[in-house]
Amino acid sequence: MTHTMHEFDRYEDVRAALADQALVPELPAAEDGPAGASVAWLRATVARFSSGEPHRRRRAVVEAELARLEPASLWRAAAAGPEQEARVRVVRTLAEGLGMPDPGSVAEAVTVVAGAYFGGEDEAADEAVARLVAQLAPERADEAALESVANRIGLLVQACEATGALVEAAAGGDVPLARVLRDDPPVRIMRRVAAKATRVAGRDIAEGDVVLLDMAKAHRVHPVPLTFGAPPRVCPGRAHALALAHGVLRRPLTDFARLHHQAAPLLLPNAWDHASAALLAAQGFPAIGTTSLGVAAAAGLPDGAAATAAATLALARRLGRSSVLFTVDAEGGFSDDPDEVARLARQLHDAGAAGINLEDGRPDGTLAPVERHAAKIAAVKAAVPGLFVNARTDTHWLGSREDETAVRLALYEQAGADGVFVPGLSDQHAIAALTATLVVPLNILYTPNGPTVAELAALGVRRISLGSLLYRSALAAAVTTATTIRDGRPTDFGPLSYAEVQALGAPEVRR
Questions:
Q1: In whole angstroms, how far apart are CA 159 and each of 143, 186, 258, 354?
Q2: Is residue 360 within 8 Å of residue 373, measured between CB atoms?
Q3: Cis amide leading into 34 (omega within 30)
Q4: Is 114:87 a contact under the CB 8 Å cutoff?
Q5: Sequence-ordered list of residues with C-beta below 8 angstroms from that of 254, at least 6 positions apart, any chain
Q6: Most CB within 10 Å of its CB: which of 25, 72, 121, 413?
Q7: What is the pLDDT of residue 21?
Q8: pLDDT tens digits, residue range 426-469?
Q9: Side by side, which strands form the sheet with 270-271?
Q10: Residue 161 DSSP code
Q11: 3-class SS at 247?
């Protein structure tokens, strides 16, 4: 039977094809081979080339393997590794992290397998598969155990090909990986085959038809990368691949950045003065943010009106004299001039700040032009590379469409943002859709009526901010205390003692 070849290169069409569950990665011609002894067997047994229940079962193996690894650990291990060819270093670091025996020989064998993984027959690759299975499988392994081993090998091969290609494309410069993924995607053409008849972008696709997706051309006209797929088949190793790439490229990972690349998301409480920051740090929070509302209200100034530059810098200098790891909410940078924003960022960093929040909402209730905000981000990263830039968009607070949010965030991370922030976003489907396309960690503002911390973590959110919630709660508690005493009602507040608060002003060792 003759099957039709369909080609898609329009961004929306490519995205629709990636999201269509009827289209699955095409299995190269040879679909079978001796169990545990050939590339054909490997291809027929891994999650990448399967669908339905076998895909779900095999993907679960890959997800379980990745769940044992913190991206931050892979980043640091890759950065500390020996000088080797990029693909070998990627695979060796991943194999070491997974606890595989003799990761050096594993990496050598995987690079051989990778050369034949996406098609063709190769005797050397077959021999490499057999060596890997002998090395990784238990004695007298049954079919289920061999399937598990095949998917562990497949994970390494995918890292070798895709992550290795990303490292090669980014080598020799400091271009943000988000921009590399858009301009030079490691997989330029994706092939899909229709497991059943479907309709995509107005075309009828029969069962068995082949679909070619031109990723490179699609990305020329749209900034949001599709490199890691689209729901429901988003690459489960996205965070790990990016961490490996950063590490192999020896890009630094600061202590504050590391908190965004761990198994659990960073829960960031926001302080408004030295005392609140010190008390929160004493409760074990690894980092503290500042709240622009709290800083502005305490000074009798409006929030979001670029009126608190001096107060914000003064607070940063006070916190910088303590041992608190902190990031500063700097509104929109208190200027429309990227160079002035960069100068402020340098002052904040010199004061001790580990990060800065920059928002694109303006005092008049509109959004700053996306190019202007991206220019601010790029200027800050050029001036202070070690400062973590969390780029905030106020699209959801100002009623913009979800696609504008995705485009703005993509452009901000391509400008060099280390993280992105969408306050006001609480719809779980929309959050999941964003995390599927983002390259940098997503920050969400916690709200009492929104998703729980556990739900946000499950959606892939890497930082959860409390914003002005604590400050507003503290004001409410103060008023409640005063009115309760005034009105003669019973009191049972349990405040901190005078001595406890007085101790907060004691000199501390500078971080």
A1: 24, 11, 21, 31
A2: yes
A3: no
A4: yes
A5: 354, 386, 388
A6: 413
A7: 87
A8: 999 999 989 988 999 999 999 999 999 999 999 999 999 999 99
A9: 266-268, 463-465, 442-445, 419-421, 388-392, 355-359, 326-329, 288-290, 270-271
A10: I
A11: helix
Residues of the chain with CATH 3.20.20.60: 264-474
Residues 482-495, mean pLDDT to the nearest whole number? 90
In terms of DSSP bridges, do strands 210-214 and 5-8 run parallel, antiparallel, or are they unpaired?
A: parallel
User: DSSP characters for 108-138?
Assistant: HHHHHHHHHHTSS--HHHHHHHHHHHHHHSP
- Listed in order, the ranges of the chain carrying CATH 1.10.630.10 are 5-248
Based on the number of CB atoms within 10 Å of its own CB, is 274 exposed (0-12), middle (13-18) or buried (19 or more)? Answer: middle
Q: Give the position of tokens 């990303």.
A: 166
* pLDDT tens per residue, range 26-74: 877 655 667 778 999 999 999 988 888 999 999 999 999 999 999 999 9
Rounded CA gap, 438 and 370, in Å?
17
Helix (H, G, I), strand (E, B) or coil at 159: helix
Place of tokens 């002998």: 134
Task: Please give the full DSSP string across 172-217, using - where no structure is assigned.
Answer: TS---HHHHHHHS-S--EEEEEESS-EEETTEEE-TT-EEEEEHHH
Contacts of 199 (CB under 8 A, 6+ apart): 205
| Structure token pair of residue 383 | 């001036």
Average pLDDT over residues 161-170: 95
CA atoms of 57 and 132, how far apart (whole Å): 21
Strand, helix or coil at 270?
A: strand
Residues ≥6 apart with Cβ < 8 Å to 399: none
DSSP string covering 281-347: HHTT-S-EEE-HHHHHHHTT--TTSS--HHHHHHHHHHHHTSS--EEEE-TT-SSS-HHHHHHHHHH
What pTM does this model have?
0.92
355: exposed, middle or buried (C-beta count within 10 Å: 0-12, 13-18, 19+)?
A: buried
CATH of 264-474, one of 2.40.30.10, 3.40.50.11270, 1.20.58.480, 3.20.20.60: 3.20.20.60
Written out in words, the top-level CATH class of the domain with range 5-248 is: mainly alpha
Residue pair 197/204 in contact (Cβ under 8 Å)? The answer is yes
**Residue appearing with tokens 């691949």:** 241
- Tell me the C-alpha to C-alpha distance, in Å, between residue 77 and each of 168, 250, 333: 18, 10, 35
User: Which among 309, 275, 328 is positioned nearest to 474, based on CA atoms?
Assistant: 275
Cα 422 off chain centre by = 14
Nearest C-alpha neighbor of 417 from the set 464, 360, 469, 467? 360
Q: What is the pLDDT of residue 506?
A: 59
- DSSP assignment of 449-464 equals TS--HHHHHHTT--EE
User: Which band of pLDDT confidence, cut at 50, 70 and 90, is reported for residue 25?
Assistant: confident
